[in-house]
Amino acid sequence: MSNVDVVVTGLGATTPLGGDVASTWDAMLAGRSGVGPLTQEWAGQLPVRIAAQLAVEPSEVLERVRLRRMDRAEAMAVIAAKQAWADAGLADSGLDPDRLAVSYGTGIGGAITLLEQDDILEQSGPRRVSPHTVPMLMPNGPAAYIGLELGARAGVRAMASACATGAEAVALGLDLLRAGRADVVVAGSTEAVVHPLPIAGFASMRAMSTRNDDPEKASRPWDKNRDGFVLGEGAGALILERADHAAARGARVYARLAGAGITSDGFDIVQPDPECRGGIRAMRMAIQDAGLTGADIHHVNAHATSTPVGDMGEIKGIKAAIGTHPILTSTKSMSGHLLGAAGALESIATILALRDGIIPPTINLDEPDERLDLDVAAHKARPAEIQAAMNNSFGFGGHNVALVFARV
Amino acid sequence: MATREEITSGLAEILEEVAGVNPEDVAEEKSFTDDLDVDSLSMVEVVVAAEEKFGVKIPDNEVQNLKTVGDAVTYIEANH
């Protein structure tokens, strides 16, 4: 435990539910689905023809020539980070760039660039391959572009822990601030892999919903008829700041980032441990790190991706680590699964639930799995006094990350 | 055979597409790097696009001699 308090002073996002945080949050509270049919020509041959695609295209936000040099995941990261930066009021704050760090990841990286440039290589030869290919596909690209955009010089760290990436990037941000390596950290993650190859790969694992005829109903965490996750794309960014630094500049504070827990399963490269042992350890670690007990956690924004095994394992874990009292939700029912960016978007949803005293719904939970014996904010947003809340993220590779946010 | 004016305006189109250069700023005496702010990676894109547009080969060891738009026009005029 460290005596350095860390707070969240800015939020940014571009998601299937909206082009910014406000529109995304409004859509969540209204229980809207961001999932729709894939109408691209390549989708016809795929077993999965649905996804949650961005509500606002990056081309509506960033200048055309800049976009030519960025992978879609990088562009989304820059858009989210710029929003968070402006939201935190840091633009003209005189922050020393040597005290600004970036902790930002992606689950997969510049896959669209890699695959598009491979098409060019095959069809037109090596000379036609773009000279921007490498900086577009490298997995540290999103973090590095944010660093460039905001002038960060205290280090640009790039996380990669599959679907736990966003949460792990936030956890690293907490560590950096506690260790005194920076005063402000831009943390979060991005993912843009709506492309036939990643979709075919996930579909071959039988991990994805094939409810192609009813896209808005496809992502249904904890529902008896869930049949896999729905791929989403998007990016989220949080401005994390030492509490005394935020106070000194009179910054508006959303919440305190009170604690984090990171563990690994040592169980299987992709299968979640059905007993959620690694998840339990991560949740307990985060609660202890926050100086709280399970009883203090009133709400959990769960990882629950709508897969048959993972959803129920997490329920066991929450009961063991926290208890039977928290009100759960899975916002993936609306946003789809943003893979590496999930932890960033869901941290934002957790923070706003704390701030506004309302838990966004889990839509499509029409027939709850019999083993679901915890309270879920099903169908409709639920007002609730929340003092502290948890966000869980688990990733292929056996990564488990739990974050605890608390009211200020 | 394209005239020097036609080659210049073709290069201006490429420069706008690749690097966002205002076509009105493109003139023979302008330096790619100093005046038009074309960085080395974008210059590679300009060269490849110019090869395609004008049906020329511009070897890498020639590119370093193409300091200005006029240099490129002269090379393309002589080799296409």
Automatic annotation (TrEMBL), chain A:
Key word GTP-binding present: no
Annotated active site: C163
Cited PROSITE patterns: KS3_2
SUPFAM superfamilies: Thiolase-like
GO BP annotations, alphabetical order: fatty acid elongation
EC assignment: 2.3.1.179
Reaction equations catalysed: a fatty acyl-[ACP] + malonyl-[ACP] + H(+) = a 3-oxoacyl-[ACP] + holo-[ACP] + CO2; (9Z)-hexadecenoyl-[ACP] + malonyl-[ACP] + H(+) = 3-oxo-(11Z)-octadecenoyl-[ACP] + holo-[ACP] + CO2
GO molecular function ontology, one term from the record: 3-oxoacyl-[acyl-carrier-protein] synthase activity
GO cellular component: cytosol
Pathway: Lipid metabolism; fatty acid biosynthesis
Matching SMART domains: PKS_KS
Residue intervals of the Ketosynthase family 3 (KS3) domain: 3-407
One Pfam family in the UniProt entry: Ketoacyl-synt_C
InterPro entries the record matches: 3-oxoacyl-ACP_synth-2, Beta-ketoacyl_synthase, Ketoacyl_synth_C, Ketoacyl_synth_N, PKS_Beta-ketoAc_synthase_dom, Thiolase-like
Keywords per UniProt: Acyltransferase, Fatty acid biosynthesis, Fatty acid metabolism, Lipid biosynthesis, Lipid metabolism, Transferase
Function recorded in the entry: Involved in the type II fatty acid elongation cycle. Catalyzes the elongation of a wide range of acyl-ACP by the addition of two carbons from malonyl-ACP to an acyl acceptor. Can efficiently catalyze the conversion of palmitoleoyl-ACP (cis-hexadec-9-enoyl-ACP) to cis-vaccenoyl-ACP (cis-octadec-11-enoyl-ACP), an essential step in the thermal regulation of fatty acid composition.
Family: Belongs to the thiolase-like superfamily. Beta-ketoacyl-ACP synthases family.
Protein name: 3-oxoacyl-[acyl-carrier-protein] synthase 2
Organism: Actinoplanes aureus
Gene (UniProt): fabF
From TrEMBL, chain B:
Signal peptide boundaries: none
Annotated pathway: Lipid metabolism; fatty acid biosynthesis
GO process annotations (BP): lipid A biosynthetic process
Main location as per UniProt: cytoplasm
Carrier domain sequence ranges: 5-80
Modified-residue entries (O-(pantetheine 4'-phosphoryl)serine), positions: S40
Alphabetical list of InterPro entries matching this protein: ACP, ACP-like_sf, PP-bd_ACP
Matching Pfam families: PP-binding (PF00550)
Function: Carrier of the growing fatty acid chain in fatty acid biosynthesis.
Protein's name in the database: Acyl carrier protein
Species annotation: Actinoplanes aureus
Encoding gene, per UniProt annotation: acpP
